[in-house]
Amino acid sequence: MTSTPGLPHIWVDQDTQLAELCEHWQTADELAMDTEFIRTDTFFPRPALFQIGDGAACYLLDVLALTNLEPLKKLLSVGPLKVFHSCSEDLEMLNHWLGVLPQPMVDTQLAAGFALKDAGKGYQRLVEDLLGIHLEKGETRSDWLQRPLTPAQEKYAAQDVEYLLPLWQELKKRLQDQGWLDAVLEESQWQVSEVATQESGQSWLRLKQAWQLDARQLAILQALADWREETARTRDRPRNRVASDVLLQALASKEPSHPAAMTGLPEASPGWIKRYAQEVLPIIAEAGKIEEAAWPETRISPLSREYKQTRKQLRQALAEQAEKLDVPQELLARRKQQDAWLHELLKERKPELPAGYPAWKQGVLQEALNSLKVDES
């Protein structure tokens, strides 16, 4: 292994300093970016630090001290290519915190999936494998909201962007040689658009045991899940601190009409009933009146033979196309998308590609979906 003296670490906590830096960075071609946040007792991640590397230094932006973030928002929205690693949570945090998403952007974890045929490599492993530099992981779960940060925290945060640009340069060369660079940039853009266009009203699909309920019960579950989502957002509390999946499912199944009927339901403590019963009971009553035509479709049991066979066929079709392209199967469709297609197949409907899906994989995915037998009679 090799080691380097490292780039300077510069703490940024003055608005004038940030504005000058952002104006300077607008002339760069590429910038490394990362964030540190806490999300243990809240619905939304709480931003604590924003790191930027420009190849000459690593800048640690103290977002707890800075008050004018407009220059940073502008930098994120236009200008240089923003290089992140495994950025799905960063994107979600930025969208909520600043109301902007990085444009243009590339994800080095995604790039490594194409270039190295490994879709899940972490930052430390990539730095070690491609640059020969060993990084410690010791501060992963630090309290990033404390001030001052420890020297170990500052070093860890700076290293998260210090090697991102060299890493991207190495991956970019390989992607250019392999002909995958445009696909990586397109796929990264799709990641951004997914965050920007997250669908509302689908929160009930998070509940993995929803297949146990009938269509009428699912209508109640859908209303309860929407209530939980809105309550968690409004009060900034984790979903399960508002109501667990198990409790929502029990409420949808038992359909209680008064607080006493909630007693004995799993995870319905006396404190929870006292706090939420008067909110939840009217929701259950109203959802129970929804007309049958508006009920959600029932879900097929994942334990059934039909489900297992169809899932196997879908995965096999995707695997065949991934092998043709010589890319990891995960890059063709994420689990959430595969689940949506699987539901369509189980309902004997031909799955469709989402609007605006990355062009590089539209053809092979359409071929995979067309190969699956669907009885639409």
Automatic annotation (TrEMBL):
GO molecular function ontology, one term from the record: nucleotide binding
GO BP annotation list: tRNA processing
Transmembrane segments: none
Superkingdom field: Bacteria
Matches recorded under SMART domains: 35EXOc, HRDC
Presence of the UniProt keyword Cytoplasm in the record: yes
Protein name: Ribonuclease D
Organism: Marinospirillum celere
Lineage: Bacteria, Pseudomonadati, Pseudomonadota, Gammaproteobacteria, Oceanospirillales
